[in-house]
Each structure stands twice: as structure tokens, then as C-alpha cells.
Amino acid sequence: MFLTISTTGDPERPATDLGFLLHKHPDKAQAFSTSHGTAHVFYPEASAERCTAALLLEVDPVALVRRGKGKGRGGAPDAALAQYVNDRPYAASSLLSVAMSTVFKTALKGACQALPERARTPLPLRIEVPALPARGGSELVRALFGPLGWTRVDAVAIPLDERFPEWGDSRYVRLALEGELRLADALRQLYVLLPVLDDAKHYWVAPDEVDKLLRAGEGWLATHPERKLITSRYLSRRWDLSRQAAQRLELVRLAESDDLDVENVDNAVDETEDTEEKPVPLAEQRRTAILDALRAADARRVLDLGCGQGQLVQALLKDTAFTQIVGVDVSMRALTVAARRLKLDRMGERQAARITLRQSSLTYTDKQLKGYDAAVLSEVVEHLDLPRLPALEYAVFGSARPRTVLVTTPNAEYNVRWETLPAGHMRHGDHRFEWTRAEFRAWARNVAERHGYRVEFRPVGPDDPEVGPPTQMALFTMTAADDTGRRARGRAADTQGSASGNGSAHRTETEGEAA
After folding, report:
1. Comparing 484 with 409, which gets the higher pLDDT?
2. Could you read off the pLDDT of 403-427 as tens digits, one per residue?
3. 140 torsion bin: left (phi>0), alpha (psi -120 to 50), beta (else)
4. Which residues contact 503 (CB under 8 A, 6 or more apart)?
5. N or C: which terminal CB in the chain sees fewer CB atoms within 10 Å?
6. Taking a C-beta distance cutoff of 8 angstroms, is the pair 402, 394 a contact?
7. Residue 412: which of 357, 476, 470 has the closest Cα?
């Protein structure tokens, strides 16, 4: 996948200023990791008279298959037809657009501290894309780029096979654009129109794509004669998003025609406060799902295993239904931060009596953790090396044996939807692994079978129809026979504890016994 940007100059305004505008030095070849491969930036020529910057995207075909099979909603038929043999590594598409937004992020904004005036000034540009899928042919290419200030738009159809001209042309064109435009404007046009011409995206189109479209289309999309087609294709024909974008673009068009700000046009409602619904962070959605599951399980005494800095403990404390909350972590530093977050030193006696922060390793049995209604392992298991998981499994399900266990962990399949996550990388540097849905369910079912639990699975976050939710949750419930025995053992332990005179005030403990 290849793209070149060329400009000309003279000794007073050298063409090599292109390096400043792109924030990429002409004397260096640079490589950048992207979600589906590696982007290379280099300069085939760099002189005062002429300078050419090249962007080469080396797509990892295995990553395409593993991370969403090379297509998003409305994905390319080539990828749907054959996972391993398709045009995605070679033809310019949304993969190249995302690479541009990663590699030329500052240039897309039109920012250049070294040469601010050059960034605001049109340059003589020539942009070439050797292989561009164009659903609509050369005519559509010219209809899209023609109104945008380019003096020359060459879109030459590429034959299916030059040796057999009777087969006709393919749906690919060789694109060459020439004209005087600001570099930022040219890049933003390409960012939008490459996936529009391909009529496909390799990632799921979420509501925030509307904002991306309007940012990249600022100054040209609102008045473009093919605005409706561009909006529809860019948003993968999601009518709800297309309608939202069309309404906002119409406001922009009206504002520009009357030389007004958009805010002055859209002033029918005087809002003194920001009432726009903001997306709920995934971490908050995860805590909400956990709290709902604990309430449904009628849990009163809860273990937060791997509590970290105490965010879930804090949420549990706000609900008086949870009468005893124990936060467990191997890190004393994390427990200290949790204590500060909870303001334990200023907490009332009754409230403090509900909380215990305990230092303990989750891979060792700890008899102090027995007899609780529920235990939560929220984003914990992926931080352990796989050979240590059986020890964690036994410590929780075999030794502590709470009636309910909740386990959440990232869904590795969803990683393809994070545009900024490089191919082959995990969401966090400390993750030892990340499971697919099938892998997580296989592990959970085996655990349930070995220890007398039944298990069900729930999505956390938006449930993508292709790759599932960003977080997956398993809800383990002890079977009736095992629960009866657990309750009997719990009553015996409570009697023994009362006889020994154990206190119930808030405390921070260290691990007492390991076996």
C-alpha cells in the first residue's frame, strides 16, 4: 500500500520544507507501528527544487485475519470471499487512512511550529496512489476530487490483466492529483475519500466517526456536491449516523453562506449547561455490570481480589447492601493509594467497620478469605503468567469458595476496534495474555466443572456483532449441593470466630498464612 506526496520549490522556499510540514526528516527513513502492520516514511528525492515523501504501509496479513478478518461493517467483499487472499495489503483503503492519521497526525491538523506560515500557505502538490479501489470507477474519482481545488485529477483504470485486454478493466485506478492546496487540506481529503472510494472500512463504525468526519471535512465537505454519498459511505451506510452528520453539515453550510458561526445559527435552544450525553468510560461500565451482578446474586459480604487502587471498593462502599467489603492486593503501595482514595483515616466508625484492606497473594490459599458471599476478579487474571493460573483457580474456587465469583477480562478479538493499538500489542504493558471469547469460555467452563460451579457469560460494553464486547465477564454460581456444604462450614467458622473474640473494626492486614 503506497502513497507519495511531492512538491517543488526554489532556493528561497526549498521543496524540502515538506519535511517540516510532515514532521518527518528527509534524511531519515522512519517506521511506525499501526493496528495492522508497519508504516514506513521515506523520501525518494529531496532537493531544494523537488521533494517527494513516500508512505509505505506494510500490512500484516495474519493480523488482518486475527484482528477482524480485514473488514468492518460493510467490509470489502474481497476479504469476505477469502480471508487469506485479498487486496487489503496492496490497495489504498481505510487501513491507509488510519496509518496517515497515526504518522501524519500533526500535519493533518495544519500545525507546524518551525514554519507556521508555510503550513497556512497553498503548495504546488502532486499526490500519487498507484492502486486505489474505486467503486464507481474513474468518473466517481473525478467527481469527488474535482470540486476540491485540484487542477488535474487523473484516474486511470487498471486492466485486470494487460495480457488479456478483452477481460476489461478492474475496479482499481491509478490516481494522480495536481494542484495548489494547503498540505493539511490535501491530507484530510485523502483521509476521508480513500475509504469512501473503497466503500469499506476495516473497523467497526462507532458514533464517534461522525466527529472524525466533520473534523477532517472542515472547510470542504459541507459544500461538496457529493456530500450525501461521501457521508453515507464513510459511515458504512449507518443511516442514524449519516442523518446526524447530514444535519450538522447543513448547519455548517448555512453558517458559511451567511458568514456566521455555527453556534449563532443553531441557537433555537439556549442551554446554560452542557446537556450532551457523553460516552460512559469502559471502566465505569465494567463496575456497573459487576455491581448489578452482585446485587442480583444477593451478595452481602464481598471480596475484591486484586483491588488495585480501590475504585471498585469505593463503589461497593456507596451501597449499604454490601455489609462487609474486603479489598485484597499483593501490592502494599496499591493498598496505600486505595486507603487514601477511600479517606479511611477520616471515615466514621460504622462505615470503617465495613472495610478491610488486606495484603495477600492471590496464588496462595488464605483461610481468612473463606466464607464470603461473592468474590470479584476484575481485570486480574490477564496479569498472571499462564502457568500460575491453576494456583489462582484453586485459591479462589477450591479454597475460599465464595458462593458467587465474577471474573472480567479483555476480549482480545475486540482489540481490532482500537485504531491506535498497534498490531500484535496488548491493551496494557503488564498483560501476560489476552483471551478470545472462545478461549475465555473454555477456561471458565473447565474451572466451573472442576470446582462445582455453573457459569454464564455476559458482555460488558458495546457488543460488536463481529468481534464481541471490549470486556467479557463470567458469572460463576456454586451449585446447590456445594452451597449447602459451604453454608454449614461457614456457620461452624462463625461460631468458632465468635468464641475467639475476633474484632470487626476497619483494618489493613498482611497475609497471615500461605499453603
Report:
1. 409
2. 999 999 999 999 888 877 777 788 8
3. alpha
4. none
5. C
6. no
7. 470
Most distant pair of Cα atoms in the chain: their distance: 95
Q: Which residues of 394-431 are buried (b: 16+ CB within 10 A; e: fewer)?
A: bbbbeebbbbbbbbbbbbbbbbbbebebbbeebeeeeb
Q: For residues 468 and 410, give the distance between their C-alpha atoms in angstroms, rounded to a whole number.
A: 11
Cell numbers given for 52:
517527494
What residues does 59 pair with on adjacent strands? Answer: 37
Is the predicted pLDDT of residue 244 greater than 70, yes or no? yes
Judge whether 41 and 54 are in contact, CB under 8 Å.
Answer: yes
Q: What CA–CA distances, in Å, run from 187 to 127, 177, 331?
A: 10, 12, 47
Interacting residues of 243 by C-beta distance below 8 A, sequence separation 6+: none
C-alpha angle 80-81-83 in degrees, rounded to nearest 5 = 70
**DSSP code at position 256:** H
Average pLDDT, the chain: 84
Q: Which distant-in-sequence residues (6+ apart) come within 8 Å of 473 by Cβ?
A: 286, 289, 290, 293, 406, 407, 408, 457, 458, 459, 460
- Residue 5, CB-side half-sphere exposure with 13 Å CA sphere: 27
Rg (CA), the chain: 29
Q: What share of the chain is helix, strand, coil (3-state, %, to 5)?
A: 40, 25, 35
